Give the backbone structure.
Amino acid sequence: MKRYRNIKTAFSVILLIVCFQDSMGQDMQFTQFYAAQTYLNPAFTGIHGCSKVSSNFRDQWPSIPGSFVSYTFSYDQNLPSLNGSLGVLFTNDKAGSGKLRSTGINLLYAYEVPISKTWMVRAGLQGGINSRNINYNDLIFGDQIARGGAATSIHANNSEMALYADLSTGTVVYSQNYWIGLSAHHLNRPNQSLLNDQSTVPVKYSLHAGTRIQLDEPTNSKDGKYAIYPAFNLKSQGKFDQLDLGLYYGYSVMTLGIWYRGIPLFKAYEPGYSNHDAVALLAGFVVDKLQIGYSYDITVSRLKTSTAGAHEITLNYIFCKANKKKKRIVVPCPKF
């Protein structure tokens, strides 16, 4: 009897998690947000001045069965003749034992205008189609146990997929040493409910900025080898806020960094809720045109003993035309 109660409790928890995700609709996140630029802000599309292929992979809480796995794949290209850039972004996010999956494909456009000899401003648009689905066959509900495995009414009365359009926008202003951006995702607040009900995706606002502090003198009209890159990303979606704050140290083709995630100095959302989530360590390096980054999130909240943190890998490949002579203002981000 005790075993039966434990099993029923476990399945109830899984169901609550699924319903919570359905009602809150929080977006997936990346510690290396600076390396997932098109996901962070559509205004970053083509900002590098070349063509770029990017991939980001994140495995959050791997010690929990049915961990949260997210990845993106994107291609973006600068088009000087149009003073703009085009791109495409594919996203996929799998959460929990019920294989709750969100998938999206979006087209990106950014337009840039110089506002002085040393500053540029960019505006970006993003539009696409997203889907959200769950495999009910991978879940066992309490009434199924009571009925000896018979189909649950939850499965019978609800959809396994939600399909919706999604619109986002953003802007970024930058110089050789500073950058600041603002983005707003899900402007149309689409309905993503799997319960034949109303569950709108909250608008996600993100304010992000950074700078480069050169530690040595440039040589031969190039930047020096040593630099520090402080940066932050402040997000707000629904009733949840989050701050990513940290810095990188760059030396030649190597980059090391440390990050904090939380929302300090603010009142907790609920009594006993921790405003401190994780500390992340990261390393990156460049091999010719390939940029590689790895980070590990050390959980510092109450979940630290059971989640095993989060692993994240980033791969970027940038290629330019050999005869490209036009000098551009380069956004001061790490080299990976």
Remarks:
- The domain at 2-319 is CATH 2.40.160.40 (Porin).
- The chain has a mean pLDDT of 83.
